[in-house]
Amino acid sequence: ATSFILYYREKRQREMTSRFKPRRIELRSDEIVHGVTGLIGNTPLIRIASLSNALGVNILGKAEFLNPGGSVKDRVALRIVEDAEQQGLIHPHTRSRIFEGTVGSTGISIATIAKARSIIMPDDIALEKVNALRCLGATVERVRPVSIVDTKHNIARQHAASFGKHGTEGSLSHHLIQSTESVLVTTTMGLVPPRGDGVDHSGDNVKLEVEPRGFFADQFENRSNFDAHFEGTGPEIWRQTNGAVDAFVAGAGTGGTISGVGQFLKSVKEDVKIVLADPEGSGLYNKVKYGVMFDRREAEGTKRRHQVDTVVEGIGINRGVKNFQLALPIIGDGFRITDAEAVSMARFLVEKDGLFVGSSSACNLVAAVRYVKKMGWKDGQTVVTILCDSGNRHYSKFWNDEYLLSAGIPIDTQIIKDLLREP
Ligand code: PMP
Prior knowledge:
Elements: H1 2-19, E1 45-47, H2 49-55, E2 58-63, H3 73-86, E3 97-101, H4 105-113, E4 117-122, H5 127-135, E5 139-143, H6 146-149, H7 155-162, E6 185-186, E7 207-208, E8 214-216, H8 223-240, E9 247-250, H9 256-268, E10 273-279, H10 284-290, H11 322-325, E11 331-337, H12 339-353, H13 359-375, E12 382-387, H14 401-406, H15 414-421
Parallel strand pairs: 2-12, 3-4, 3-8, 4-5, 9-10, 9-12, 10-11
Antiparallel strand pairs: 1-2, 6-7
Helix pairs in contact: 3-4, 3-8, 8-9, 12-13, 12-15
Bound molecules: 4'-deoxy-4'-aminopyridoxal-5'-phosphate.
Protein name: PALP-domain-containing protein
C-alpha cells in the first residue's frame, strides 16, 4: 500500500512540475554585486508622467533614493573614502575615524560605507536621520547649523585634527598627517571590515603599524565630491538619455551635483542648459542672478539660511564653497523655490504618480517645470533632474502635516496644478 501511495505521489509531482514549464532564462554571472558599495550608482532615470504629459516634454528624474544609503550622497561618500584611502589619509584596517558636518544624507552615506565615523549635524534636522545614523553606529553630535559650514570654526575639522594622535579624541594637534608617532593596532572582528566591500576581513587579524587617523571628509571643499558626479552621475545621464538632454536642473548644498554633472554635460554638449533650484533663505540664487550672495533687490536672500526656518533640507547655502564655485560659470538660469511650492509638488507627485520624494527633489522638479514654462518648451525636449532622497527621510518635517500647518506652510496641490496650466 505504501509503494502504491508513493507511486501516485511521484506521478502527481511529475505532472505538477511539467505543467509549469519555465520560460527560457538567460544565465549570467555578472549580476552579483560585491557588498553594499556595489549597490551604489547606476540608478534608473524615471520619466515623470504627470509633469511630462502636462507640459509636452520629458521630465526625467534620476532615482538617487535607490542608493543603499538612501540618497545621492552615497556616490560622494564612496569617492571621498576611496580617494582618502588611496592618499593614505585614512587606513582601512585601523580605528581611523571620519568626521563630517552634514544635514544627514552625507553622514548616513559615510556611515554606510566606512566602519569608523563621527557625524556632526545641525540641530534643526529631521530626527529620522539622526536615528538612522545611530543605527549605523555613528557618533552624532548636534550643533547649530552654522557650525557645519563655517570655515574658521568648523567643528568637524577641529575634531578630525584632534583625533588620532594617540588613537583617541585627544587635544587639538593641528595636523594629523604630520604625526610621526606610530601605534601598533591589531585589527579585531569588531573593527573590520572597514567598509562594506563584500570581502570577509574577519580572519585578517592583520597587524598594521599605522596610527589610526582622524579625517575630515569636507564635502564642501573636497574635490572628490565633484569627481563622483563628473565621472559617475553625469556620464550615466548622458548614456541613459542617449545624448538627448536639453537641460539639467539641480539644487545645491555643496554644489557637487550641479558642478560635476553640469560640467560633464557641458563637455559633451555645449548648448545644454544648467539650471539652479534654490530654496528660501539661500544666497545662491542671488549669486547666480546678481553675482553676490546678499542683494538688496532680493530681500529674502539677505537672510542667513540658519535664520530661516525652511522645511527644505540638503540644498541652499550662504557661503561660496569650492564645489559650487566650479558650477558658477555654467549655470544659465536659476529659480527661487518657496516651501509652499516644494510641499505642493511632493503631494502632487504622490497623488498623480505614486512617487514619494523628499524636499530637495520636490524643489528640483518645481524649478524644472518653471524653466520649461519660461522657455516655452512643449515639443518633447528633455529636462533631467535629481531625485536626491525619498520622502521617508522627512516624516517629521516636510511630510508632517501638523508641522507644516504650525509653520504656516500651506499643503495644497493646486499650486502645482495652476503652475502646469499657466500659459
Ligand atoms: N538633496 C539632499 C537630500 C542632500 O542631502 C543634498 C546634499 N546636502 C543635496 C540634495 C545637494 O547636493 P549637493 O551637495 O551635491 O549640492
